[in-house]
Specification:
The protein is an alpha+beta fold. It has helices spanning 2-6, 51-54, 85-90, 143-148, 153-164, 182-187, 189-202, 216-224, 289-299, 301-307, 362-376, 424-439; strands at 12-13, 19-20, 37-39, 59-65, 70-75, 80-84, 98-99, 104-105, 120-125, 128-132, 138-142, 177-181, 204-208, 236-238, 254-257, 269-276, 284-288, 311-319, 323-331, 333-335, 341-344, 382-385, 392-396, 400-404, 416-422. The protein has a seven-stranded mixed β-sheet. A hairpin with a 4-residue loop joins strand 5 and strand 6. Helix 7 packs across helix 12 and helix 10 (301-307) crosses helix 11.
């Protein structure tokens, strides 16, 4: 039964018609309704299988167009695709042009004629076309390979969704925190796939039932691939320390922040393992930074423009894994070419006293940041929970800002979390490999 569920996991529908990657956790119920924690299990209702998952195209006709600069493919379903010849020649799949064992192009770009045209194009059978080029080089292209790489806007969007899983499920204070047992994701590929898919979609997943000792995050890192080494080590211990070299190593309140904006490429995923928890205080808080950024953009476009265009100085100096003196400039809200938030870089503790902007722009910046910070801390946006020993919270450090309520210090350590990072490149690599294994597809 699970295999059938897994085949549609990436493309289940949510209200509004947006494709999403909801795991089989929410049996017809909203992600944002009900109890604070929600065990991921059950089936997905109303799912729709992607064209890319079930595609078995046949070719009806093939011909050259535009004096041989394009090849037109007419499909058996009545649709058609147009392929530029320079792209076809660049992506010839023969052994001389493509190293199959590495899945890498062997063709040297300096040997590519950007004005190339086809000499002959033919339909070898319903599943393949063949092209002869002016220098008599021959290329063949499988129908399925071509169909997936169609240049239509719809096909390109679907391929990008399939590769990068860009859809997001936004949330506020009524977040239903997804839960999966730690042992399941460690030893079951379907559960691990469900975990990473949900992490990408929702931004946060709680793993339960890990041993209450250091070292569990190293195991989790091996499950993904490897952890990110930083100046604080491969893992680090969040507990009250004398002469703390980080504000997290105190018992005070931590305001909402993302970790490590002082690095040019901040860690994409954060892992926090609760080994010991204080009896009172120490609650964790999270907020969906992308959701709040969207609110700010609608509420005050000028403030959004300031935070997405102003380079803010960050600094971190000290000694831990080794001595360090790090400086970086980041925009509080990093945006893509469409102006959509793709990463939040906000850490008030490491924001530098140096501020490299004209004096007259300082106050407008502070006003914009204050409005953003107020939205982060509003009751409708932030979600509060308390980790139990054995819990591991995993979250998107580019999207989810986290904080902590204060707690009382004692003669001995009363609260102990072990932390680690992983890069999104590593996480997405594992997700794609798990998907291939679970869904039996490339």
């Amino acid at each position: 039964m699970w295999r059938a569920v897994a085949k549609v996991l990436l493309r289940s529908k949510v209200p509004g018609g947006r494709a999403c990657c909801l795991p089989p956790a929410w049996k017809g119920r909203s992600l944002l309704a009900g109890t604070a924690r929600h065990r991921c299990q059950g089936t997905v209702p109303g799912v729709h299988t992607s064209r890319l998952l079930s595609m078995s195209p046949g070719i009806q006709k093939v011909e050259a167009l535009d004096a041989g600069h394009f090849v037109r493919v007419e499909w058996e379903d009545g649709s058609e695709s147009h392929y530029p010849c320079v792209w076809l020649r660049d992506n010839c799949q023969c052994p001389h042009c493509f190293l199959q064992s590495a899945r890498a192009r062997r063709l040297v770009f300096e040997d590519l004629d950007v004005n190339i045209v086809v000499k002959e194009v033919a339909l070898a059978d319903r599943k393949k076309i063949s092209i002869t080029w002016p220098d008599e080089h021959a290329s063949e292209y499988e129908a399925e390979w071509l169909k997936k790489r169609c240049f239509s806007e719809e096909a390109r969007a679907e391929m990008q969704e399939d590769l990068f899983l860009p859809e997001r499920q936004y949330w506020g204070s009524d977040l239903q925190l997804p839960e999966i047992p730690f042992e399941e994701i460690m030893y079951n590929d379907e559960s691990a796939y469900k975990w990473l898919c949900t992490l990408k979609k929702v931004g946060i997943v709680l793993l339960t039932g890990a041993a209450t000792r250091q070292g569990e995050l190293v195991k989790l890192g091996h499950r993904i691939g490897f952890l990110r080494l930083t100046f604080y080590g491969p893992t680090w211990q969040v507990q009250d320390k004398a002469d703390a070299n980080n504000v997290a190593y105190t018992t005070g309140k931590l305001c909402f922040h993302t970790d490590y904006p002082v690095l040019q490429h901040p860690p994409g995923v954060q892992l926090l393992h609760c080994i010991k928890q204080t009896a009172t205080g120490g609650e964790s808080e999270v907020v969906d930074g992308f959701h709040v950024s969207n609110k700010l953009k609608k509420q005050n476009p000028q403030a959004y423009q300031i935070l997405s265009s102003t380079a803010v100085d960050y600094t971190d100096v000290g000694v831990d894994y080794c001595d360090f003196a790090v400086q970086c400039k980041q925009r509080i809200i990093d945006v893509d070419s469409r102006g959509q938030a793709v990463r939040i870089n906000y850490n008030n503790a490491t924001r530098d006293t140096v501020f490299d902007i004209p004096a007259e722009k300082v106050r407008p910046f502070y006003a914009a940041l204050k409005e953003f910070d107020d939205l982060l801390n509003s009751a409708e946006h932030k979600f509060t929970y308390k980790l139990k020993p054995g819990d591991i919270v995993t979250f998107d450090n580019w999207r989810v800002l986290h904080g902590r309520q204060s707690y009382q210090s004692g003669s001995e350590v009363t609260r102990h979390l072990e932390g680690a990072y992983a890069d999104w490149d590593v996480v997405m690599s594992r997700l794609r490999l798990l998907r291939k294994r679970v869904l039996n597809r490339d």
